[in-house]
Amino acid sequence: MCDAKNESNEQVKRPPQPRALDTNLVVLCCVLTLTEVYKSERGAPETASMVSLGLRIASWLLRPLWRRALEDEDPSLTGVCELRRVCAGVVTHLGQDHGLIDHSVHFSFAVVLGGALLRLGDSVQALAVRDGDHGQWRALRVERLKDSWDSGQQDSAGQDKPRSLIGTVTSCDQEGGYINQNTYFPRQALCEGFQPVKGDWVLAHYVVSSEDWSCRVQQVSPLRYKRMDNVCVSFCKGDSGVLEDSVFFSLDSVLLPPGFRPTRGDQVNAVILESSQSLCSWRAICMTPVKRGYVPAVGQTPHS
User: Which residues are in the S1-like RNA binding domain (predicted)?
Assistant: First the structure.
């Protein structure tokens, strides 16, 4: 028993094995020794050649160690996977000072070569980078492929021409609203009789200022609208409802004859426009009952 304990104690107290790094230290000592030999035998050319060869071999052996030491001292060299590519694509989104190429590569107007004014649909070539495998692509340089060598006078003349923008109304109030969250339009730019709400698809005509590249919307109208006859109110609750299970309406934004309040089962004629409203893709802006000569009783609402 005692012998077993002594053996276990000896195993515990056994000195650690030398690390692999000690071999590099041996090589370093050899280098120093060769250097001293070179100093003492400076006059012998054979010795100098051997020392020079030994120094080269030692430097080659120690190179991995030096590289590992540099990586340990500079943490920024590890863990950074910056990917770079040259891509050709189409401008799919434009904001006040930025845009998107193919819905995925972000760029700012400051990196566009020559200060060219890009438009939706322009073909461009970009140098893009991203940090890591899952980072967002950002452009370091963007060059317009079409008409990239146009003169400044042609660009200036093109800025005065109205351009078209298709998008959805993302916010709206009494003063105006925004299209796609970044293009502002004033109330005066709305076509006659059009009262937009959030979600409406619109067609906007705008011009770009040659001074600050800002957009000035001149006219906003519904993108698509049509008339529907003899359609049924399939759902109605509170101040909103649905026509034919596909057209949304709200009593706050639909034009109705005096005294008419639609209820489920009513047959109506309606004017609708394209709009993203929950599960519906159309919105009614005007409704009238199908029955001709409809006159509500005084002080009474039909279908009440």
Answer: 85-139
